[in-house]
Specification:
Number of strands: 31
CATH topology of the largest domain: Jelly Rolls
Largest sheet: 7 strands, mixed
Strand content: 25-35%
Oligomer: single chain
Radius of gyration: 25 Å
Number of domains: 2
Helix content: 25-40%
CATH superfamily of the largest domain: Jelly Rolls
């Protein structure tokens, strides 16, 4: 398949920082020399580390450039056994699901740890105190923060990294990610909220052998500037048992790989930002934007409702020349809150970017035998007989630019031959698989089935007539003036996200609607985003690239650009109904 739009997908978008002082200092020896020259009197250097930072590499390639003795606070934390016992109620015995924790880092240490560490370092002279929670244990003369992007942590899990204070390097990767998601990353982000106002330098530690550092002031310059203009996050791509071939061509990916199933290209908690300072850049988790400039990014009304959560998600599901996704359902709001401690659920939609005789399974057929369906699913899970989805579930052919709403509780999956832009609320791991067509995962293990959860959330009245009346292509023309067609394409009234499609060959004026906006160019080669008041520099996007407009922007325009000049383009925009 050739790229249908003939443009190069930008896999590594960078956000240029204009107002900065020193920019990026790169290299472990170079950073050490800079710190020693500018902070000669720093006797105690505190190095706060996001869980997953490689301490062994730091000791060998960074700390050796200092005269200081290195002390790891992790050595004073609860033992692995005590910590496992403490976390059991939050992690459960499930491979995927746990309960969202509210732990502070101090709860992972004995009550005497802080006193013990501070007493011990008094006799060491110059000392580097590092680890997860170091900034809460010790007050230093200089504070450094070493950060990791989520994709890097997940990659390290797959390559044998154990969870914090765990020796289980060979643990099922799903269980490692579960512990990160429900416990470690929550606690680490709470540390960020308290320590970032006190740090002196911020580090990109995604490669500990070549560290990158900026001052606190330069980091916040990047965060502040980014929340005042359009930007794109750095996408990542991952294979899967049902993965397809569309993204390989359109997004210019490694042709030697068997497939690519997912792309997370608009998930604030998962994606990274690349901040360009002059000739070099620094990687930083995109969630830092939400943590430190939530009102400018989200808007006051959305922030009041969701706090420091980014509630909209864009991602790709590619089954072109691939297979069906698992047959699944997402939890109802009251269920996800009571069982997992999440405040809102994964309502979603499928926007069809392309279709090669593709389709979707959606909703139940009329007058099915509920008990028979449940028993058939149980038999399939037990390996007795494959589940006959076509007996119970509606199948619909789909074409390019169809838009299907999928409120939580609706049985669904994308079938082979479809290229889906999934527009949804953010709690992305809460998928209750009911049937996975008898497959195993890429790790050779059976893919998790959560039939008990699923049955409790299936809305049995969402049958064919309701689906076709409520969920399939519920498109309404809002205006068609001056060559700009604006349509409301979803989502269902049960869902808090609204989507608008704009079709035009000239300039279209947009409002943020008191919410952060997430958009994609879904037709046409290239478009340009501009400020009517010249509040930001023009921003260029290509086909299938996700971009974000902070609510702070208020108004902006989109028009065809470059090879698309004089041609018709389409964008899809999502925002929170306020």
């Amino acid at each position: 398949m050739a790229n249908p739009q003939g443009v190069v997908f930008n896999k590594f978008p960078k956000t240029v920082v204009k107002q900065y002082q020193n920019g990026v200092i790169k290299g472990n020896k170079e950073i050490a020399e800079y710190i020693k020259n500018h902070h000669k009197n720093a006797e105690i250097i505190v190095v706060e580390c996001y869980p997953g930072v490689n301490y062994d590499v730091l000791r060998k390639t960074f700390f050796t450039h200092f005269e200081h003795t290195a002390v790891c606070v992790d050595d004073y934390a609860l033992s692995e056994t005590l910590l496992d016992t403490k976390l059991q109620d939050h992690l459960t015995d499930d491979r995927v699901f746990g309960r969202m924790s509210q732990y502070e880092i101090e709860e992972f240490y004995p009550s005497s740890a802080e006193e013990t560490i501070n007493h011990m370092i008094q006799d060491l002279g110059k000392v580097i105190v590092f680890g997860f929670g170091a900034s809460r244990m010790v007050k230093g003369d200089l504070t450094l923060y070493l950060d990791l992007t989520r994709w890097e942590i997940k990659t390290r899990y797959r390559n044998g990294l154990a969870n914090w204070q765990s020796s289980k390097k060979d643990l099922d990767t799903l269980k490692k990610e579960k512990r990160g998601f429900f416990v470690e990353w929550r606690t680490a982000d709470r540390i960020k909220n308290t320590v970032f106002s006190d740090i002196d330098y911020y580090f990109d530690a995604n490669d500990e052998t070549i560290l990158k550092m900026v001052s606190q002031e330069d980091l916040f310059a990047a965060i502040n500037e980014t929340t005042e203009k359009p930007f794109s996050m750095v996408p990542y791509f991952d294979p899967g048992v049902w993965g397809g071939q569309w993204m390989k061509e359109v997004c210019d990916l490694d042709r030697s790989k068997e497939n690519f199933a997912w792309s997370f290209n608009g998930v604030m908690e998962e994606n990274a930002m690349h901040y360009q300072y002059g000739e070099d850049y620094l990687a930083s988790p995109a969630i830092n934007l939400v943590l430190f400039k939530p009102k400018k990014l989200l808007g006051d009304k959305v922030y009041a409702r969701f706090g420091t959560e980014f509630p909209i998600r864009f991602d790709f599901l590619d089954t072109v020349e691939g297979g069906n996704l698992s047959l699944q359902v997402h939890p109802l709001t009251e269920y996800i809150y009571s069982k997992f401690g999440m405040a809102y659920t994964q309502d979603e939609s499928y926007y069809i970017l392309d279709s090669n005789q593709g389709g979707i399974y959606l909703g139940l057929k009329e007058n099915i035998n509920r008990a028979k369906m449940i028993q058939s699913l149980k038999d399939a899970e037990a390996g007795k007989a494959p589940f006959n989805a076509d007996e119970f579930i509606n199948y619909y052919d789909v074409k390019k630019h169809d838009h299907i709403s999928i409120p939580a509780g609706t049985v669904h999956c994308s079938a082979t031959g479809t290229m889906v832009l999934e527009i949804s609320a953010t709690p992305y791991i809460f998928t209750f698989k009911m049937w996975d067509w008898g497959r195993v995962g890429l790790d050779g293990l059976p893919r998790p089935i959560h039939l008990n959860h699923a049955v409790r959330n299936i809305q049995w009245d969402r049958t064919t007539k309701w689906i076709e009346t409520e969920l399939l292509n519920q498109i309404k023309v809002l205006s068609n003036e001056a060559g700009v067609l604006e349509e409301k394409t979803g989502l269902h009234p049960r869902q808090f996200i609204e989507t608008r499609r704009h079709t035009h060959d000239n300039k279209a004026l947009h409002s943020t609607h008191d919410s952060v906006n997430v958009l994609m160019l879904i037709e046409g080669e290239t478009a340009i985003v501009e400020s009517p008041e010249n509040h930001f520099e023009p921003f260029v996007v290509n086909f299938a690239e996700t971009f974000i407009i902070p609510e702070h922007v208020k108004t902006y325009t989109v028009r065809p650009y470059g090879a698309s000049e004089g041609r018709t383009i389409k964008t899809i925009k999502a925002f929170v109904r306020t």
